[in-house]
Amino acid sequence: MELYYWPMSHNARKTRALAKHLGIDVTEIVLSMQEKDHKKADFLAINPMGQIPAIKDGDYTVWEANAVLIYLAGQSPNDLLGQSAQEWGSITQWMLWQSTELSPIVPTLHVENYFKRVRGLDPDSDKEAAAMMRLKELLAVLDDALMGKTFLVGGRLTVADFAVAGDFTQSRNAAFPMDSFDNVSRWLSRIESLPAWQSTSPPNIG
Ligand SMILES: N[C@@H](CCC(=O)N[C@@H](CS)C(=O)NCC(=O)O)C(=O)O
Fold first, then answer.
1. Domain boundary among 51, 73, 95
2. Who has the most CB within 10 Å: 39, 49, 94, 127?
3. 103 in the same domain as 53
4. What is the position in ligand 1's atom list of the atom closest to the CA of 39?
5. What pLDDT, in 10s, does the model give residues 40-99?
6. Which residues have CB under 6 Å of ligand 1?
7. Is residue 152 within 8 Å of residue 146, measured between CB atoms?
8. Candidates 39, 40, 51: which one to mutate for ligand 1, based on the most atoms within 8 Å of Cβ?
């Protein structure tokens, strides 16, 4: 099984971390986004969206990071996909929340608060402020959901935790207001303590 990724990609990071956490025998293939490898014909045959990450397993391909997480978790018997209709519902809820609500604003904060700062460029303060306002609304929802909980669903690690935590990969560099959200911070520390999470940390660019 081949996992296509780019080291800076937070979407790929969560899939690499889960593969390592489960000890799945995956061949990691690095693409260069600078070289636009993800838009070349070879890779478009695997993911026609031209986005990272993606998996090729024999003739089978799967893309969309959260779908990749589900495919990886399904490779061995484990608790990561939930054990009841309520857990399946909640896991799916958080994975959809990540991809439809949280994920769209994360790149804006990466660019405005991190990449531009490292390159000595001025952030677009209107764009940054709008994304930050939305982030605070979303973190408030996540923080309430994590009140008194160790993980998002079922009191144990599931694919939902990997799905959501991926967007916090650059939370410090991109100035996410983590200090105002204690439950989120405690939950993130638990994910960050996983050896597989630590070993997939992207390189710093600044
Ligand atoms: N919804 C996709 C988003 C993936 C995505 O946007 N990946 C970035 C790298 S972090 C990418 O490949 N961007 C290039 C592009 O969208 O053309 C997922 O969750 O897998």
1. 73
2. 94
3. no
4. 17
5. 999 999 999 999 999 999 999 999 999 999 999 999 999 999 999 999 999 999 999 999
6. 9-11, 38, 50-52, 64-65, 99
7. yes
8. 51
